[in-house]
Amino acid sequence: MTVLAGLLLAGAIDLVIVEKSTGKPVPCRVHLKDPAGKPVKPPGLPFWRDHFVCPGRVRLDLAAGKHAYEIERGPEYSAASGTLEGDGEVRVELSRIADLASEGWWSGDLHVHRPAEEVELLMSAEDLRVAPVITWWNNRNLWKDRDLPADPLRRFEGPRLARVMEGEDEREGGALLYFNLAKPLAITGAGREHPSPMTFLSQARAQAGVHVDIEKPFWWDVPVWLSSGQADTIGLANNHMCRSSMMENEAWGRARDAKRLPPPLGNGRWTEEIYHKVLEAGLRVPPSAGSASGVLPNPVGYNRVYVQLDGELSWDAWWAGLRAGRSFVTNGPLLRAKAGDKLPGHVFVSAGPLELDFKAVLTSRDPVAAVEVVVNDVVVRSVPAGELGRIRLTESGWFLLRAATTRTDTFRFASTAPWWVEIGGKRERISRGAAKFFLDWAEEREKRVKVEDPAKREEVLEPHSAARRFWQDRLDRATAD
């Protein structure tokens, strides 16, 4: 940081944040606290909880005393910190540490609750490329008294793409996120249990191109949604993981054993455990990421998923790549990887044992102890990113790479989507333990349903009964322990 003028007086400070390579102002996020530790909220700029975003220059009228700042622009840039005091101009430099778009990786955050009119600057300040904006959510529908836009897709310089017709059904069983619908679902007035989320899920699936995301793995209705086969992705990097803290419980979802998985990192590990059990159950559901900025403390794009595209960014291509699992999720480390020269999501088919070499590039502002290779829910290697070497696979299943930072205040990590392996003609590997895990969960959830009206109760219970039968069948067909 270069301080061009700094006086021990209260006054106006022109804070200028530039990209080091160009010397030009760059949009960014600023966490600024007054001497008492209270966040500073400049007028006229998007603000949320403890931070604001600006186009790279902002005039600050500050009281006397030292004001601490942290400045970031997503995980592909360096961060800066320091103090402001007095008046004059303060110039701060940020450096690009990675350029994933130039490598064909395009970032997105599936859970954005910020005002649509602020989204362009919010995305630019985080160097985020794709942002579906939640504009309807249970009884809150921003389109209630407004005409629907002829084209809800917004295109900004960058390129950056945002769509403003996305929605969320969040009730007793948890939350499903809906994307690419032509209009909001008619969920206004829905009760905690009735109609069943499956009612709206089926309605959404009647429209072409719709994408449905299970917002978190530990919501109570996850076994139902998985068994339906109608969910495209599941939130591995989700909004319980915050920038400088964790939500240490599972809200009204299925609680973990906090003695085995203590806070603050236990919720993150529970999330990973459940996702790996989804894969162990033989379900090929790619991971997703969302921050819920506008509801929870996160900035836009804190939890993000990068999708690899062969060519330029387009809305439809990005979602197709996400569904195919050509992706990795992160809230910090940037883990780009190939196995056998194939991206995540690839299915390897072999008559016999298979040997694969890894190529991985890791960029991270936070220290990462090692990159782990996880095969069928077992860590088979834990080494620095550049030394992953070769693995030998002898049975069908899945594998992925993950990297957790050494942070102890929040679960900051990256995980690739899985690769799939079919050896000796066996397409499916179903773990008995994983199937039993979800069967027990489905049975417990079914007993928790509370609907007084008999007809409505029967309607709500039907998908739970179907889920129980699905997981029992999965258990009966298990091929591994």
Your description of this structure?
The chain is an alpha+beta fold. The protein folds into four domains: 93 residues, Sandwich (Immunoglobulin-like), CATH 2.60.40; 230 residues, Metal-dependent hydrolases (TIM Barrel); 95 residues, Immunoglobulins (Immunoglobulin-like); 45 residues, no CATH class. 19% of the residues lie in helices and 33% in strands. Strands 10, 19, 20, 22, 24, 25, 27, 28 and 29 form a nine-stranded mixed sheet that branches. Strands 11, 12, 13, 14, 15, 16, 17 and 18 form an eight-stranded mixed sheet that branches. It has a five-stranded antiparallel sheet with strand order 4-5-3-7-8. A hairpin with a 2-residue loop joins strand 11 and strand 12. The radius of gyration is 23 Å and the shape is globular. It starts with a strand and ends in a 5-residue tail after the last helix.
Record the SSE blueprint.
Layout: E1 2-3, E2 11-19, E3 28-33, E4 47-48, E5 51-54, E6 57-62, E7 67-72, E8 80-84, E9 88-94, E10 105-108, H1 119-126, E11 130-137, E12 140-141, E13 153-156, E14 160-171, E15 174-179, H2 197-205, E16 211-214, H3 222-228, E17 233-237, H4 266-280, E18 287-289, E19 304-308, H5 315-324, E20 327-330, E21 334-339, E22 347-350, E23 354-363, E24 368-375, E25 378-383, E26 390-393, E27 397-405, E28 413-416, E29 419-423, H6 432-448, H7 454-476
Parallel strand pairs: 2-9, 11-14, 16-17, 17-18, 22-29
Antiparallel strand pairs: 1-9, 2-6, 3-5, 3-7, 4-5, 7-8, 10-19, 11-12, 13-14, 14-15, 15-16, 19-20, 20-28, 21-23, 23-26, 24-25, 24-27, 27-28, 27-29
